[in-house]
Amino acid sequence: MNIKKSMLGMTVLAITGFGGWSTISASANSQVFSTGQAALDGAPQGVDLQSGLDSNYFTIDPNVGTASGTNAAKLTKAHSPAGTGNSAIQISKAGVQDSWGAIWSTDESFDLSKSETASMWIYASGENAANVGDGMAFVLQNGGTDAYSGAGESMGVWGVANDLFSDVNPASSAIKNSWALEFDTYPNDDIPKQGAYLGWLLGTTPSTYDFFNSSPSSYDVDGPGDAQSSQSQIKDTHIASNYPGSTDTYTGTKVYGNGGAINSATGNKIAHTGNFYYYNLQHKGLLDEGATGGSGNLSDHRWHHITVSYTPPTTSSGDGSMTYTYNDKNPDTGLPQKSTDYATVPIDLSKFNLSSGQTKVRWGFTGSTGLYSENNLVIFDQIPGEAQTDASATMTIKDSDGNYTNEISDGDSVSGDSDVKLTYTFERTGGDEDWKSVNGDLTIPDDIDVTSGSIAYPDASYTDSNKNKVDVSKIVAPTSSGDGQKLSVPLADNGLTLSGTQKATVTLYGKVKDVASTSDVSEASQTSYFVGSNATSTAKTPNFTITKKVNLD
């Protein structure tokens, strides 16, 4: 198992009980949204799940046998930075206690025989409350669309502790044949202490913990079940994974105390002194995300990006692997950024109980609230089983020979009145499906005067209705300084589809405005979007400084 984590500014390194190293990371420097609606209004760009995909891509079963009430999961509209469409999966809503949510891909679309990627933004925070809960989980499972285990610390995927706290492994009530990645915002770290040992003759006094009226919630306790003195509490919010339906995911600890038992004659619960059990959950690939709230890095009222990358086994009997990397994109621009907050865990395909010849499983999200609640939102920019995509932007200046060879990097200086070329490249890099219905939504630096543009399609013989030209007359001026000029670029008339490793480019030509008459002018980098019906990628122009025009006369 490979786990790595760092802080912004400093690193705190601590040994965990899960066979690896973990550290606590400071919050990303991004915008704070105090409510769920504010988070949706300021959402990063993703795939419009409501209109971009087939209407039956997801299944939200309204009722399941393992939970009371109605499924809280739904697809909801979100703001689009690109000015197109955008939507989020909502698993739970702040202020709604004791709720449950589950949403599943209708088809088994996560192929365990191929490389797969889930790239998404998550928001997991409460509103005006010190405590939030309980969290959500990204799940792969070989079962139906009615899969759900229970609320509370189970988050809809892990097993549910036995009501009488008898020696029953929770795996029996978990989602079967599954792997889960939890985003746990409420640490459940109860450790019912053993009573005092009075010697071999008198034995042990009962624990002071009241098993009759209280319910130990101990999934976030680390350590062996047979040595309570070696157990410790996971007190921070965290991200971790394991197999919910596997008995070795849970470790039981026996405590002699006072609790309840069922009267065999009446069927009623009666007081009983004896052995009771609490279970902890083995967290694989643990990422410690700090305290609940603004000082942490999970339930801090910010959007965070996570990429979950699966690599299939290289031999018929070997394990695959899953790497999940947190905070790997800038929430303000949507662009990739370096992250050392990641873990890699093995994936044992036998845990899915696949039938002969089967390679695909269902994927989805589960979540729950209890006494405490939160907004759990997910926005996908790349969907498992669909297309993997990328985009980039370059800015070049014409040299004295008339060629655009001088590429501009962040922080460079450019003379006013220079001829400039902006090149936007977008491509399909992998996945199971084509990148469908792609169009461009460009943001151009304020002080570039664009005069013309063209589109180069993968099929060089193809000509769209505008003769592969960009209509630069549609450029919209910045609403305020630094916002950039907006330009929607329709592709292939009704949206471009890319297959294989096809790529296309949008090229704009123009001049850098001569605006630095008395002092240099700073130009901010600008983010552009290439939005398809099943994937979205972003491209950034560099930030640069415009200097006074060089007069060669």
Automatic annotation (TrEMBL):
Residues 227-243 have a biased composition (Polar residues). It comes from the Bacteria. Keywords: Signal. The keyword Signal applies. InterPro entries: ConA-like_dom_sf. Residues 1-28 form the signal peptide. Residues 215-243 are annotated as: Disordered. The keyword Signal applies. This is Extracellular protein. It comes from Levilactobacillus parabrevis ATCC 53295.
